[in-house]
């Protein structure tokens, strides 16, 4: 790969054709998907179909991201990030820009999906996220810049997928990318060392963001109490308070711990709903019986027949007795 170019990449217009200097593959830009600290991601058309193409300004950073994508693809049993296709350079106006090509995930934004399908999906998708984070942490990485913008829901059954892995950092190092609202350093509740608890703090803040779509500002003091009050005053968040409070205060050392406790919490919630539904149904039946008007007693036809037969037998018996005696 070529050396680093320190010139920023200007927005690449729709329709621009990007040809790789080394692999000779051609991509046509369709639209911009998003900006990151280390580059810009575009939707592009290619011989492979639609792909996501990230153009950067620093070869070392782009190569580092590619190495992360390759590592993620080697994790067995789960798909953690987009599939990696190739890395190359693009020459433009006498300058050389590194880029790499990956799978385009055509999914629905996390919060849009939850708003459409119902709040109960928050817990289900968080279970998926914690499972995948557990796998990532076992491989010695921390996601770092974990936020709703980097999460999509695709497929049927719905599956949570990760987007930009540019913030993924080796355990023990300083997190290289973060977004303030989801960063424990910003809230004064921990440092920015890459460790599992850093990602778990971000998971908790994603749930808080679901409860407060417009987010909220950091207080000048009393951050811990401030966040706990935010949870307590929101109906959606109150259900998850035991889990969220522990994650925010760094009391989970592993994603699997948080996932297990969330699973138990959700199971308990489902059982409570079942009991409430059964109770509601039973009360309904009782009320229905109480409100039902008393049934009128109807003389059944067969009773009338029996009585008539008995009456006739009685007189027939008297007739026989009279003849005998």
Automatic annotation (TrEMBL):
Residues 276-295 are annotated as: Disordered. GO terms for cellular component: cytoplasm. Keywords: Membrane, Transferase, Transmembrane, Transmembrane helix. The chain crosses the membrane at residues 302-322. It comes from the Bacteria. One of its GO terms (molecular function) is ATP binding. Residues 27-274 form the Protein kinase domain. SUPFAM superfamilies: Protein kinase-like (PK-like). This is Phosphotransferase. The lineage of its organism: Bacteria, Bacillati, Bacillota, Bacilli, Bacillales.
């Amino acid at each position: 790969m070529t050396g680093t170019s320190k010139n920023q990449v200007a927005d690449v217009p729709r329709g621009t054709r990007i040809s790789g200097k080394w692999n000779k593959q051609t991509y046509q830009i369709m639209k911009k998907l998003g900006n990151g600290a280390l580059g810009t991601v575009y939707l592009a058309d290619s011989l492979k179909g639609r792909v996501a193409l990230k153009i950067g300004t620093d070869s070392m950073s782009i190569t580092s991201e590619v190495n992360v994508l390759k590592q993620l693809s080697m994790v067995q049993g789960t798909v953690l990030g987009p599939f990696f296709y190739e890395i190359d350079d693009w020459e433009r106006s006498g300058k050389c820009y590194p880029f790499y090509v990956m799978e385009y995930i055509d999914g629905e934004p996390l919060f849009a999906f939850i708003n459409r399908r119902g709040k109960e999906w928050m817990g289900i998708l968080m279970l998926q996220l914690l499972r995948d984070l557990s796998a990532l942490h076992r491989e010695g990485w921390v996601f770092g810049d974990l936020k709703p913008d980097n999460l999509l829901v695709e497929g049927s059954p719905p599956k949570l997928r990760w987007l930009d892995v540019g913030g993924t950092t080796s355990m023990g190092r300083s997190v290289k990318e973060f977004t303030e609202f989801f960063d424990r350093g910003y809230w004064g509740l921990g440092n920015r060392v890459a460790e599992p608890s850093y990602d778990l703090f971000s998971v908790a803040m994603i749930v808080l963001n679901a409860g407060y779509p417009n987010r909220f500002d950091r207080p000048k003091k009393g951050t811990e109490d401030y966040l706990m009050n935010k949870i307590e005053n929101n109906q959606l968040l109150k259900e998850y308070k035991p889990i969220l409070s522990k994650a925010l205060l760094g009391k989970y050392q592993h994603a699997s711990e948080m996932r297990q406790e969330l699973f138990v919490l959700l199971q308990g919630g489902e059982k409570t709903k079942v009991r409430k539904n059964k109770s509601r149904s039973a009360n309904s039946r009782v009320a229905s019986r109480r409100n039902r008007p008393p049934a009128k007693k109807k003389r059944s036809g067969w009773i009338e027949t029996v009585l008539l037969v008995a009456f006739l037998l009685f007189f027939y018996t008297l007739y026989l007795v009279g003849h005998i005696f």
